[in-house]
Amino acid sequence: MIDAARREFAHHGYTATTIEAISAASDVPAATIYRLFSSKLGILKGILDTAIAGDDEAVAVLDRPPARQALGDADPRQRISGFVGVTAAINARIGSVYRVLAAAADAEPGARELLDAIDGQRARGQGELVRSLARDAALRPGLRSREAGDIVHALQSPEVYRMLVVDRGWPPARYERWLTDTLAAQLLP
């Protein structure tokens, strides 16, 4: 049902997608969908939660081995590179669904709240990278943690990923190299 909902949202957008269409595409009764997700926005949230994590396990991204390993790397550049890998994988998974949510946020207050919550969650996660660099005195002189967080938040955004990888056709490995180089140049001494 989740895959059918993802396809419906990607193809028709948030407003035009109905629970009935998701029901028809998935062969799951509409009543069951309502019982599981309560609303169309609930379905979109479920899709995004699974896409962000990469599975349906109740483990936060920062508590998963790739993020823990990246944040634990003693070399600041390698720490950035590992964190870029985690973020790039998330951005690849959320892709079209994030765009659906961003478009819906202009018209529906609940979608705006969800987008803001996801954006806040992303900023907090990225803040862990900045805090780890600051703790190790690895931020370039004069760069405040808040500014560093803003830089990471902007450059690791789903929008920048989409612009370069999806719209401009960059291979994901090129994007990751560019982002690692750019963040290292902006953040490190």
UniProtKB/TrEMBL annotation:
SUPFAM superfamilies: Homeodomain-like. GO terms for molecular function: DNA-binding transcription factor activity; transcription cis-regulatory region binding. Signal peptide: none annotated. It comes from the Bacteria. InterPro entries: Homeodomain-like_sf (IPR009057), HTH-type_TetR-like_transc_reg (IPR050109), HTH_TetR (IPR001647). Transmembrane segments: none annotated. Residues 1-55 form the HTH tetR-type domain. PANTHER family: HTH-TYPE TRANSCRIPTIONAL REGULATOR BETI, HTH-TYPE TRANSCRIPTIONAL REGULATOR RUTR. This is Putative TetR family transcriptional regulator. It comes from Kineosphaera limosa NBRC 100340.
